[in-house]
Amino acid sequence: MHIHTLRNFWISFALLGLITSCKISQQSENKKEKGLKDYYEEYFPIGVAVNTKTLNGDEGRLLLREFNSITPENAMKMGPIHPKENVYNWWEADSMVNFAQKHGLKVRGHNLCWHEQTPAWIFKDDQDRLVSKEILLKRLKDHIATVVSRYKGRIYAWDVVNEAIDDNDSSFLRNSLWYQICGEEFIAKAFEYAHQADPDALLFYNDYNTERPGKRDKIYKLLKKLVDAKVPVHGVGLQAHWSIFEPTEKELRDEIELFSSLGLQIHFTEVDMSIYPWEKERRPKKIGESDVFSPELEQKQLEQYSKVFKILREYSESITSVTFWNLSDRYSWLDHYPVEGRKNYPLLFDADLQRKKAYWEVVNFKK
């Protein structure tokens, strides 16, 4: 064979191999399974609340396929992370932040100041008496500075103050020990302390039942006061512990439009869809009480999920994050609250980590 002919043969052979390789690579990419984060890439990040178990095994694989943001469910709350004045438990929170960095996930910090899961020591002196306002604010500042500084540049958003509004329509702020000792001032101070610790982090006020007009309007009143006072609050976290019975379309649209009018970012921070009506008080499961996920409940749940996500997509200019509260029906905080031992099925993945019918409604943008 002539040398030029031989050279041309090998060039053609190499090009053929390159083309074949590219086609195989493209086919492999096309077969790569899309997750929620991919479907919603043009709308907003999709996150999930995690514990250390969620980061491993089949749950970890599901997390990485479907989500691009995580929120520690409990590990960063004051009680777990700061149980004693001079003791911090970092390993759980560190493992979650390290996991996120390794896999290119965003992290929402949750939370810095709350009336629950707060260690008793923070409110008491060595004689078991309530401390002064000055001492409590100093302890709050030290806590926030320590935690936020540790994760500076690695946590892009924090729920700074959580659930400070009272559920009773006749009261404004919750009568917590934070409020009893410090008055309303602790709220603004918490945001100021967090901003000092990480000026680049987005800071959120976070609460539940925000679609109910009575509580919604009180939250708006609080946020308006903070914004007008130039407190460094950047967004509102709407928890979205919904059910197949609420919210209505009007309630959801009204709350999004009201809070976006303040110029704040909106994060839906704790999304799930209970199959039961909301009960305010904890109670044990009654004998014979059903906790079966019937076809009728499945249909109602998928219709509600479809409705709310269609609305969220419409307001994607105002909504900059949506996070589910837990990964799958294998485990949900609603299995224990408010009815102890009553199984709930509030998420888009079943107990075997398979996509439920509601999942396909959430990613069906034609409806």
Strand order of the largest sheet: 1-2-3-4-5-6-8-10
Percentage of residues assigned to helices: 40-55%
Ranges where pLDDT stays below 50 over 5 or more residues in a row are 1-31
Calculate the terminal CA-CA distance, rounded to whole Å: 64 Å
Query: How many beta-strand segments?
Result: 11
| CATH architecture identity | Alpha-Beta Barrel
Describe the structure.
The protein has a single domain (43-276, 299-362), classed as Alpha-Beta Barrel (TIM Barrel), CATH 3.20.20. The chain has helices spanning 3-31, 36-39, 57-66, 78-81, 91-103, 133-150, 177-182, 185-197, 213-228, 249-260, 295-314, 357-362, and strands at residues 46-50, 69-72, 106-114, 157-162, 202-207, 235-238, 241-243, 265-274, 283-284, 319-324, 339-340. The chain is globular. An 8-stranded parallel β-barrel has the order 1-2-3-4-5-6-8-10, surrounded by 5 helices. It has 12 helices and 11 strands. It is α/β, with parallel strands linked by helices. 41% of the residues lie in helices and 16% in strands. Helix 6 packs parallel to helix 8. The relative contact order is 0.11.
Provide the fold topology.
Elements: H1 3-31, H2 36-39, E1 46-50, H3 57-66, E2 69-72, H4 78-81, H5 91-103, E3 106-114, H6 133-150, E4 157-162, H7 177-182, H8 185-197, E5 202-207, H9 213-228, E6 235-238, E7 241-243, H10 249-260, E8 265-274, E9 283-284, H11 295-314, E10 319-324, E11 339-340, H12 357-362
Parallel strand pairs: 1-2, 1-10, 2-3, 3-4, 4-5, 5-6, 6-8, 7-8, 8-10, 9-11
